[in-house]
Automatic annotation (TrEMBL):
It comes from Nitrincola nitratireducens. HAMAP family: MsrA. Its EC number is 1.8.4.11. Coiled coil: none annotated. This is Peptide methionine sulfoxide reductase MsrA. Residues 5-112 form the Peptide methionine sulphoxide reductase MsrA domain.
Length: 115
């Protein structure tokens, strides 16, 4: 059985590459999540007015890689203490967020941290 995890950790291209290299990750897909406009364009998201975050959706095999390992990668691949910024990228779309897909992910995400 496959599972889905979704993370916002700055510009999605670098984040996608990081997650795609993890054994047990079957596929990755970039997009926008967490805003209030259906199917926003890149230009709309860049205004900051839709309040979407750039995200990477990770399809993974939980028998090969645990969700907790993905959370560890999330915390290690960016600096969540810089609000709405990762390196040279600035804007609300670059904020740090974990979008959970079930109750188990919610609990594990809330228990996870930078350590």
């Amino acid at each position: 059985m496959m599972a889905i995890a979704t993370f916002a950790a700055g510009c999605f291209w670098g984040v996608e590459l990081t997650f795609s290299k993890i054994p047990g990750v079957l596929s990755t897909q970039v997009g926008y999540m967490g805003g209030h406009v259906d199917s926003p364009s890149y230009e709309q998201v860049c205004t900051g007015e839709t309040y979407h975050a750039e995200v990477v959706q990770v399809e993974f095999d939980p028998e090969q890689v645990a969700y907790e390992a993905l959370l560890t990668t999330f915390w290690q691949c960016h600096n969540p203490t810089t609000k709405n910024r990762q390196g040279p990228d600035v804007g609300t779309q670059y904020r740090s967020a974990i979008f959970y897909h079930d109750e188990s992910q919610r609990v594990l995400a809330e228990q996870s941290d930078l350590s």
